[in-house]
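Possible regression after last week's pipeline update?

I re-ran a chain I had predicted before the update to compare outputs. Posting the input and the new output here so someone can diff against the archived version. Not blocking, just want to make sure nothing changed silently.
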Amino acid sequence: MSGLWQSLAVGAPEVILAAGAMVLLLIGVFRGDRSLVGLSWGAVVLFALAGASLIDDGPGRVLAWNGLYVADALSAFLKVVILIGAAVSVLLALPYLKRTRTARFEYPVLIVLATLGMGIMVSANNLLTLYIGLELMSLSAYVLAAFHRQEVKSAEAGLKYFVLGALSSGVLLYGVSLVYGFAGTTAFQGIGAALTGTRSIGALVGLTFVLAGLAFKISAVPFHMWTPDVYEGAPTPVAAFFASAPKVAAMGLLLRVAMDAFGGMVADWRQVVIFMAIASMLLGAVAAIGQSNVKRLLAYSSINNVGFALIGLAAATPAGISAVLFYMAVYLVMTLGSFLCVLALTDADGRAVETLDDLAGLVRTRPWLATALALFMFSLAGIPPLFGFMPKLAVFNAAVAANLWPLAVIGVLASVVGAYYYLRVVKILFFDAPAGVVVTGGSRLNGAMLAAAAVFCSPAGYLLLGPLGVATRRAAASLF
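New output (post-update):
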């Protein structure tokens, strides 16, 4: 029993989320949709309790559940970021769900279950644990994408996400079976020991399929095709959730798989990662130029930013992994801030304002909202002195230190191209003639979260540079 109690203690965040999700579900079943607000704040309390229960063992590792689960500095850092993203995603949805008359109690429950899956993902120490966490997150996400089931766009987004997600799961499982066949184990450390120093064609094919399955979850090119359509069709709070916490979890899982399970095959998977990084940066930058819908633009922005983050993984050094973690933490805040601005954009009849043309001259009617959105656009573009400049600088420095300077040069050029569509949004907000659309205000809670995100992305965010640097370096060190 001592082993069971130790596993329960080490896996306390997931235990809290699992038990809490069942309690929230029962309350929702008995009290109905009128319990939405209470369940949403209950979910936030669960996230806070899960965060408080995290075991901090520094760069060391604590195994649980017979080695299937690992708690270390990497999982702790990622879970804190994921829990923050999930909590914000629950709260920002409340005004939207009430306004659109879709205030159903299932929303916070699904977010909690998806977060449970993400926690399992980033603590996976076995390919089977990886798959269980990934599917738990994905199944919740499919339902969330189609949450407005009466709307054609939302139903289409859910179906499209489900079909392509099922395909990616099949690809991932095929890769897992190949890796197991050639390594003789599904444990990360066992795979690393079995495949180090070997060049088995079967193992390389298995590795490629595993990377392809994980690349779908982070929307890396060429597995990005679902992202723009799902972001546009899904409810805006759901799109904000998809662009933040799940992306951080999937990137963290990719880091662990690449460095833990396939750390001895860096030369083999680095080529795949470099291709995905370059393709994601360039396609995300170019494809976003012609977008007229704000949510689709942010979808291509997420693809573009994933490409920059992958530069750090390609370096495969402690500095590179630390840069990826730093990048994803800052990216989460920038993206949630951008979606909070989108959620605040409604016309006089309460309908969502999502096209760029409708935002023309917004600074004349809503100056603070226009200024905040411009700040997020500049930060996503990586323009100094805003805080969004630092993560890009970190991944470029890591690439140069790893002698991947051509990749860093391509990244800089992609940043210049990508800056065009971010600056185009700013130009529309500040310099175009007003479109005549009356944009109304949002909730006070969303306004407070928007202000906090804006302060984080401003030069004031540099005050957090030291603590974030320490945390990301400790997290990266746990993989080496």
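Follow-up from reviewer: compared with the archived run. Residues 265-479 form one domain. Marking as no regression found.
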